[in-house]
Every structure is written in C-alpha cells, then in structure tokens.
Write a structure and sequence with these properties.
This protein has three domains: 91 residues, no CATH class; 204 residues, P-loop containing nucleotide triphosphate hydrolases (Rossmann fold), CATH 3.40.50.300; 162 residues, P-loop containing nucleotide triphosphate hydrolases (Rossmann fold). The chain is built from 19 helices and 17 strands. The strands form four sheets. The protein has a seven-stranded parallel beta sheet, with helices on both faces.
Length: 478
C-alpha cells in the first residue's frame, strides 16, 4: 500500500448502484445490499490496514488466495442483511437487462420531413450508457457534436422524468425544433414543451391578463434599449424573471436542449422555474460549435459534461466536411459510407438560384422524395433569395415550402439558423460570400451537418475557395 492509496467508500458504492437500478419500475420493491471487496495478493498481514471502515472480512491477502472459496463465503456473509431479497437467476437477468440492454427511442426530428414514418432509432452503446449514467444524477451537462443524438436523449430523458414528475419543462431555442419535438411528446401531458421565448411570451401575457401588470414594459424601463437582440437577450429574460415572483407555477424537472444558444441572462430566470431551484433535476444538452446566437454563457450545472463521442446520423463524407469546423471533444467518424459532398461553383445570385434548383431537380430525378429534401440558406437577405427560388417550377406538381415544414409533395426551404437541431436526408446548402468573409464557420458547420446522406453546396468561387475542406479536397465538383 502506497502512502497516497485511498479506499473505496461503502456508501458511495451503494448509492451509485442503487441510483441506476432504482428508477426502473421492474426493480422497485427489490432490496439488495451492494458491497465491495479488495484483493491484495502481495500483502502478508492485513492488520495494519484495518480500521472503522476497513474490515478484515472484505480485505483479501496472499493467504486468502490459497483458500479463495472460504474467503468468498465470509465476504458474502459480511455483506448480506437479513431483509435482503434473493437475487436468483431471474434477478441477475433483470440487473443485466437494466444495466446492459440497448435503449430505443422514437425519432425526434425526422417526423418534420415525413410525419408518416414510424421507425425507431437505436441509440449507440455510448448514448445508452450516457442515458443510464445521468439517470443516477439530479443535474448533468451532456455535450456532443452534430449527429451524436443529443436531442434524442433529451427527449427520452424528458419522457423518463415525466413518469415520476407531476410537471416537467422541455426547453429549446429554435421554434422549428420545438414544433418538430411537439409531435414526439404529444402523448405525454406532463411534459410542457416550448422555446425559451415562447415561455417568456406566455408568462408576459398571463401577467397582463391576471394582474394587468406589463412585465415587458417593466423590463424595458429597467434595461432600456432598442433592437430585437436587446429585446430577446435582455428584456424578455428579465420579464420572465419578474414573472417568477408573481406566479406559483413551478416545474419538478427541467431539460434544456440547444443550451449553447442560451445567454447568461437566461439562466437565472430558468433555474427559478424549478420547484427546487437549488437541487431540482436539471439536464443541459449542448454543442458549443453550434452557438449561432449567443456570445457566452455560464451554465448552471458546474460538473464536467458527459461527452457523446459518435456521430450516428451523417455519412462519413458529410462528417468529414462538417466536422472541419467542430471545436469540441473528439467525435468518432460514423461507419456509414456514402456519396461525396457535391460542390457547385457559380457566380451571381440568379445563377446560384438556378444551380440550387437544378440540384433539387437532380435529386428528384434520382427518386429522392421531395419531403426528404431541404434547401438551406447560409446567405442573406433571405426574402429576396426565397423569391428567386420560388420563380422556378418543380416537376410533378411539387411545390416550395418556404419556412413551412411538413407539407406533402413539397421541398422545404429555410435558413440554416432556423433549421438548427433538425435534419434531412438530402440538403442543398446555398452559401453566401458574407458568411465566409465574416468567418461564420459555425453556420457552415451547422448547415453541412444537417444532411444525413446527400449534400450539395452552392456558392461563388470566393466562397468555395475559403472553405478548408475544399482545399483538402474532401468533396467533389458537380
């Protein structure tokens, strides 16, 4: 034994194990004592090691190696309590089912493209492990890059929490993402799902209706300033904080997706939404490389994040392109071969609009369903670009669905920012010079990684030449 050697804590072992098993309904009513032991085969005398929390019964030394069966019998006798249940074969199988089985959840995002799809997605081993581990903690940060399943796990965690919580809140930043997720929690009345600013608007309206107090005006008086950014990032969060003083409505648990877009001013008001603001369950899902809207945020959970390490959505070629601009913890390349990313270099807005439409037509000609195609703008101004796209007609009565997801026989068109958190089997990304000139690499990262299987990128020579993955030839000209 070295001077710096520490011993296991009995209570910690018991608490950790029980926290993983106890939430499962099949385990409830079962009582087992979970203990530990240590074998030190190079030690001849155990007496110097003994102490109040270091009993001889669970310390093995060299003489116990020669009589292992009797030592194991003493070990079992030491830990077993009179009121323990017998684990038996079925009990051991139950432990294996809880701790080692795969976890299946409903697709959280694809329904926005094809609401008839009823397939289920199997989480990777790493994702299932994360979901089980955080089940034993009241608060956790889960971090991962695009395609690692953060939103899937966030929705599944909300479902698990709703089984024991009378009310729980699932927050995100993007309205289109909230609309997509609403389909997947519609059968869970205990889950309240909305964007942060939807929550602010509802609280402001409720205060006006119930007390005739204008919380937004109060926030504007306290923090004067003009512009949408000041309204959304300062005044509305402060109005939400004021509403917490008026309303008794609280939530037992809180899950926040897209937390990278929550600014510092959001979190104080968010924590106060919990019935227990200090210890209430709070789970935060984050990808700093997707931070399109905020500059900085101090997360309310201080522990180190759990990392999702496998991209299970994109093909390998799309992963290589998108992850050129990823800055977080390492994420493994998916074992999903696919077609190379196609880049179309053309000058001028009108010609680029033609190229975008031609890419869509080529996908349709290859029997890709229109609902499986998304045209995303990483270029401004969106209204003029939308209009240029809409002047082109598509075959077979297919229409453009501009910022209007879920339409049948339509190709969806939106901005990268609004589509963040969502995905499509095929994406045509229209890249603007101003995006690369401003080094808005997080927009490129988000835009490219929305594609699951097929990706076209349309832009000028200047824009294409600025892309690192083009210089490294991680794509092909089309």
């Amino acid at each position: 034994m070295g001077a710096g050697r520490t011993w296991p804590n009995i209570n910690a072992v018991q608490t950790t194990s029980d926290a993983v098993l106890a939430p499962d309904r099949r385990w409830r009513g079962t009582r087992l004592t979970l203990g530990h032991a240590v074998m030190l085969p190079d030690i001849h005398d155990a007496r110097p090691l003994l102490g109040p929390d270091r009993q001889r019964d669970f310390i093995g030394i060299d003489s116990d190696i020669a009589a292992l069966v009797p030592w194991l019998a003493r070990l079992q006798a030491f830990w077993v309590r009179p009121d323990d249940d017998v684990l038996s074969g079925p009990g051991a199988q139950l432990v294996e089912d809880i701790l080692c089985s795969s976890i299946e959840v409903r697709p959280a995002l694809r329904s926005i493209i094809d609401d008839a799809e009823q397939t289920r997605l199997r989480l990777t081993t790493n994702q299932a492990k994360i979901l089980r581990i955080i089940g034993g903690r009241n608060r956790a940060v889960i971090s991962g890059g695009a395609g690692t399943g953060k939103t899937l796990i966030a929705v599944e965690k909300a479902r698990q929490l709703s089984e024991s919580a009378d009310s729980m809140l699932l927050l995100c930043y993007n309205r289109p993402l909230a609309d997509a997720l609403a389909v997947n929690v519609a059968d869970q009345p205990r889950i309240k799902l909305m964007t942060f600013h939807q929550l602010c608007e509802r609280r402001i309206a409720a205060a006006r209706a119930m007390t005739e107090r204008d919380l937004l005006k109060g926030a504007q008086d306290a923090y004067p300033g003009n512009g949408d950014k000041h309204l959304f990032d300062v005044q509305m969060p402060y109005a939400l904080a004021l509403s917490n003083e008026l309303f008794d409505e609280k939530y037992d648990a809180l899950v926040v997706d897209e937390a990278q877009d929550f600014s510092d001013d959001y979190w104080f008001a968010v924590e106060e939404l919990l019935r227990d603001s200090e210890e209430g369950p709070l789970y935060v899902f984050i990808d700093d490389s997707q931070a399109l809207y905020r500059q900085h945020a101090k997360l309310p959970v201080k522990d180190e994040p759990y990392h999702l390490t496998t991209n299970c959505r994109d093909t390998a070629p799309i992963h290589r392109v998108g992850y050129t601009y990823y800055t977080g913890a390492a994420v493994d390349e998916p074992d999903l071969p696919g077609q190379d990313v196609c880049r179309v270099t053309v000058e001028g807005d009108a010609a680029q609009a033609d190229a975008v439409v031609n890419a869509v037509r080529s996908l349709l000609a290859e029997s890709v369903r229109p609902e499986d195609i998304a045209v995303l703008l990483a270029k401004r101004p969106k209204a003029r670009l939308y209009a240029q796209i809409q002047t082109h007609r598509l075959p077979a009565g297919i229409v453009w669905a501009v910022e209007d997801p879920g339409q049948r026989n339509s190709v969806f068109v939106d901005t990268v920012g609004r589509f963040k958190g969502l995905e499509a089997p095929a994406v045509v990304l229209w890249l603007g010079d101003e995006t690369v000139a401003g080094e808005e690499w997080e927009v490129v990262y988000v835009g490219t990684t929305r594609a699951k299987s097929l990706l076209y990128v349309v832009g000028s020579t200047r824009a294409m030449d600025a892309l690192a993955w083009v210089r490294h030839s991680v794509s092909k000209r089309c």
